[in-house]
């Protein structure tokens, strides 16, 4: 069972004639700001185990959530933070925080999961990673006899009227967007790119894109769905075969090959790992919400077993 340790504020008294620094001289003893605020024996009393730590302001609001494989060693880094640029955030937290809470965990995985949960629920101002889950994109597809739609967005609810099947979400927006553009380019060579006027009515949403195609074979649509599902078979073979039949694709062979390589890399780095994480979590389909994406990956990561 996890345990909790709260280190309450120790008032910091300014000493006339001395600047407010990370440490001060009192007689012959040098007292660091970390020790003055959170206690000189805090680090010594902590076990060397995984934990989550929370820096709080004077109103007890959480400013920052962090995790550590070894909590004693991690907080020692805050205590010894220098004036180097890489330690700026640590120094700022120690300076601005009024209290520090430590939550001991049974394993590093438990610490990671709790850290992720608290960041997403509380959005602490000093945290960056994980607080912007709404930026995680997904790719959607829907096909009829007449038209195939491909969508890239971070807001799937805005496209609910189009009956798209969603894949994702993906932590790397850059890789997902590059893969989407590669698909648009290659499918535009195989089929016919729809004019915007021929797409279903939809609102313009910042960061989203809807594209339509005509004359894509049913086999290609199936292969595209398998590809986005993270199927580990030769999912791009039908696309490559159809491209070989197109004169423009043969003429622009180097560009076509570069986009195919990009799709293979996205499949290896993002689609297959997502499929494995979903299977580990006993979740069906090929989509996980932004809220739960990080937690299922942490739960399935063998590094924390």
Could you give a quick summary of the protein structure above?
The chain has 305 residues and is of the alpha+beta class. The protein contains eleven helices and eleven strands. 41% of the residues lie in helices and 18% in strands.
What topology does this entry show?
Layout: E1 3-7, E2 23-26, E3 29-32, H1 33-38, H2 42-45, E4 51-56, E5 62-68, H3 71-79, H4 88-96, E6 99-104, H5 108-122, E7 138-143, E8 148-153, E9 165-168, H6 173-190, E10 192-193, E11 209-214, H7 218-228, H8 237-244, H9 247-251, H10 253-280, H11 290-300
Antiparallel strand pairs: 1-6, 2-3, 4-5, 4-6, 7-8, 7-9, 8-11, 10-11
Radius of gyration: 26 Å
Please give the largest β-sheet. 5 strands, antiparallel
Q: Give the count of helical stretches.
A: 11
Number of domains: 2
Q: Note poorly predicted spans.
A: 6-28
Helix content: 40-55%
Mean pLDDT: 86
Strand portion: 15-25%
Strand order, sheet with most strands: 9-7-8-11-10
What structural category characterises the helix and strand content?
alpha+beta
Strand tally, please? Answer: 11
- Straight-line distance between termini: 18 Å
Overall, the morphology is: elongated
Series of secondary-structure elements, N-terminal to C-terminal: EEEHHEEHHEHEEEHEEHHHHH
């Amino acid at each position: 069972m996890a345990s909790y340790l709260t280190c309450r504020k120790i008032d910091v008294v300014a000493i006339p004639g001395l600047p407010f620094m990370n440490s001060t001289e009192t007689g012959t003893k040098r007292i660091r700001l970390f020790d003055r605020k959170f206690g000189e024996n805090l680090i010594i009393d902590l076990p060397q185990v995984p934990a989550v730590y929370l820096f709080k302001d004077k109103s007890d609001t959480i400013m920052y959530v962090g995790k550590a494989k070894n909590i004693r060693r991690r907080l020692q880094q805050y205590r010894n933070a220098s004036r180097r640029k890489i330690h700026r955030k640590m120094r700022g937290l120690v300076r601005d925080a009024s209290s520090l809470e430590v939550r001991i965990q049974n394993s590093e995985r438990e610490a990671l999961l709790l850290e992720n949960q608290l960041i997403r629920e509380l959005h602490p101002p000093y945290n960056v990673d994980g607080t912007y889950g709404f930026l995680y994109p997904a790719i959607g597809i829907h096909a009829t006899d007449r038209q195939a739609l491909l969508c890239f967005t971070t807001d799937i609810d805005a496209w609910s009227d189009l009956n798209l099947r969603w894949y994702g979400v993906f932590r790397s927006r850059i890789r997902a967007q590059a893969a989407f553009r590669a698909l648009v380019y290659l499918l535009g060579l195989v089929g016919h790119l729809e004019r915007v006027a021929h797409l279903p009515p939809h609102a313009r949403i910042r960061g989203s894109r809807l594209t339509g195609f005509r004359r894509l074979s049913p086999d290609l649509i199936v292969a595209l769905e398998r590809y986005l599902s993270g199927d580990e078979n030769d999912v791009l073979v039908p696309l490559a075969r159809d491209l070989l039949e197109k004169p423009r694709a043969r003429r622009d062979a180097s560009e076509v090959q570069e986009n195919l390589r990009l799709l293979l890399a996205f499949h290896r780095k993002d689609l297959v790992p997502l499929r494995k994480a979903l299977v580990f979590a006993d979740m069906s389909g090929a989509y996980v919400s932004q809220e739960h994406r990080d937690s299922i990956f942490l739960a399935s990561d063998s590094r924390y077993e």
